[in-house]
Amino acid sequence: MQSYWIQASGGKTLLEKRDMPAPEAGPGQVLVRMHAVSLNRGEFIVGGLTKAGAAKPVGAEGAGEVVKLGEGVSSLKAGDRVMGRCAAAFSEFAVMEAREAILMPQRLSWEEGAAIPLVFNVVHDMLIAQGRLAAGEWLLVTGVSAGVGVAALQVAKMLGARVIGTSGSPGKLERLKALGLDVGILTRKADFSDAVMKATDGKGTNLVINNVGGSVFAECVRSLAFEGRFATVGYVDNVLTGEIDIQALHTKRLTLFGVSNKLRNVEQRAKTVTGFIADLLPALADGRIRPVIDKVFSFDEIPAAKDYMESNTHLGKIVVRVQPGN
Questions:
Q1: Amino acid 12: pLDDT
Q2: Which of 17, 101, 293, 311 is 20 to 30 A off residue 301, Cα-Cα?
Q3: How far apart are CA 105 and CA 236, in angstroms?
Q4: How many domains does the chain have?
């Protein structure tokens, strides 16, 4: 089979297509013929998910058809359409943990299925499981036009919350109004807390989703309301430290938490999948939420898709069609 590998070199990440044997499904796993995959920025940042050293398979999520069951798997069968998190997803065949493989609603295309697993599971973790976002509350999303940001906007509106988003693109903020963005703040800098306070009548936001990183960390804290919650999910600015206002943390009774699957085991990840299936999958199945796909590339164009992601011109998810003629 053909598979893409990634290597960090000279401060950049480089992709290479290789011919590799198809993987085997181990106990509790399924082998999936991948039909579509999507890109996630964290894999292409040196020092993020990709460290300097030997090349490794790339890709973290996708959608496809189950072709083989590993030992002990009874919840799925060959031919099932599934979407989910999986390592080495940028391949013609990949292995998924059966507990993380999600049966795709019939109305979803392969491309839509590939755009869902990571961002919407992360959003469930941030907004529902840890963030406890309630109807009428305010959510602030820095870098709101990214895949996680757009999904967070969609889920927050479904929950009845009000959403403030930051972006350096006036065009993207305008487009996101159609998805329910209540307040758009045009900025790429840590200068938005005054606008957040104005929008919330001086109270601040109940939940912050920080997609950007350390460069806006202190400003996010300044934007929080009493008993506010602060989720850190990314650091595209590659700034890994930030100032913490201890007095604000103390007096406002703030909660700071991280959102990452890096150190979680299969059982912990499966718990999030179960929550996603219960709380969000019905809305994706009936069309109340539709994944926002900016552009679809062919499998041979994955390096071009990476370049496009790094150009910062997209809104939502970038998807790659693995099998021609889907």
A1: 87
A2: 101
A3: 32
A4: 2
